[in-house]
Amino acid sequence: MNKSGIRITEEGDFKQYYSVKTVAKMFDVSEKTIRRLLQNRNLTIIRIGTNIRIPETELSKLFIEKPSTNTIMNKLLLD
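Below the sequence we write its predicted structure tokens.
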């Protein structure tokens, strides 16, 4: 992995990794929130010494989308 957080896999694919601080800034939450979410979810992370790196593919797993009440009602009415 180079300084930009990009890692080239053996297959030649590029993978992007983010620090806890960067992910917190991306979602406008505290670093503590991100660390708590990492503890509560089964995510693949990379540890480099005491540093944690989160693969881009895991970011969508941090926050679980819940359908709104309107979405649920519309689905029930349309079915």
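Residues 24 and 33 are 8 Å apart (CA to CA).
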